[in-house]
Specification:
Length: about 260
């Protein structure tokens, strides 16, 4: 039996009307048995905790999405710090910079730096979100040596091979998702072909990029095809990378 990890899945998204966990039995039949749920709003963190309490396979990456940077308060900062003590919290996310939203870049950067500091203090990796701000985000990650110190995954990657290689060298994983299945995808296939095995993890970004968790198998088939390896081999290295990044094993000894 192959095992898969979905490193970025919004099981608590309002679009799923509280039914996110209902998607898991079918996914688990396909061997998808680890799910990392990223935070979006401060007000979503409670619901995430409830999800993780009700499903052994669900892990959390709480954080504030850059689009909602104006929600950041001293109370939110304290709460996020507090959450890092939970054995179900395996990362901080999704955090980053987004040039396409209304919250100002200055505010986004303040919120990003505060969350990176929380991740550094807790020795947790980060789930990164970047849109129209790749260079700026890269500069901050370099400055704070985030790749070397805690690592992370660059979610929904669709940039150039050069940026992908730079991220891999800095110690980050590339989150490969349904963008790879687009007929017009050009840059991402090149990165998937050329990157070292150790740099790739899989994600669905459900419900925004996929309706069912099983789409991850379609993404994996494409990865296997591009890299001329078997599906089993793709499961092995992507799952191993996710396990190493998030340390599920280490943390599960405290769980049930
Ligand atoms: Zn997302």
């Amino acid at each position: 039996m192959t095992n898969w990890c979905d490193t970025h899945i919004h099981l608590d998204a309002p679009e799923l009307n509280g039914q996110g966990l209902d998607l898991l039995p079918a996914a688990q039949k396909c061997g998808i048995n680890k799910f990392v749920v990223p935070g979006v709003l401060v007000s979503s963190w409670d619901g995430m905790v409830a999800l993780a309490e009700n499903a052994e396979s669900v892990y959390l990456a709480p954080g504030l999405h850059p689009a909602y940077a104006d929600q950041w308060t001293p109370e939110a900062e304290q709460l996020l710090q507090y959450m890092t003590a939970s054995q179900k919290v395996v990362a901080i996310g999704e955090i980053g910079l987004d040039g396409s939203v209304k919250s100002s870049m200055q505010q986004q950067e303040v919120v990003l730096r505060a969350q990176l500091q929380i991740a550094l203090d807790a020795r947790l990796p980060v789930l990164l979100h970047a849109r129209q701000a790749t260079g700026q985000l890269l500069a901050i990650l370099r400055e704070l040596e985030i790749g070397k110190k805690i690592g992370g995954s660059w979610h929904g990657f669709s940039g150039s091979l050069q940026v992908a290689q730079e991220l891999a060298e800095l110690g980050f994983k590339i989150g490969v998702g349904p963008i790879l299945l687009r007929a017009n995808a050009r840059k991402l296939p090149d990165a998937v072909k050329a990157l070292p095995t150790s740099a790739l993890v899989l994600e669905t970004d459900l419900p925004y990029m996929a309706e069912k968790p099983e789409i991850i198998l379609k993404v994996a088939e494409k990865v296997a095809e591009l890299r001329h390896c078997s599906l089993a081999e793709t499961a092995r290295f992507t799952t191993e990378n996710a396990n190493k990044l998030f340390g599920f094993q280490d943390r599960s000894i405290y769980g049930k």
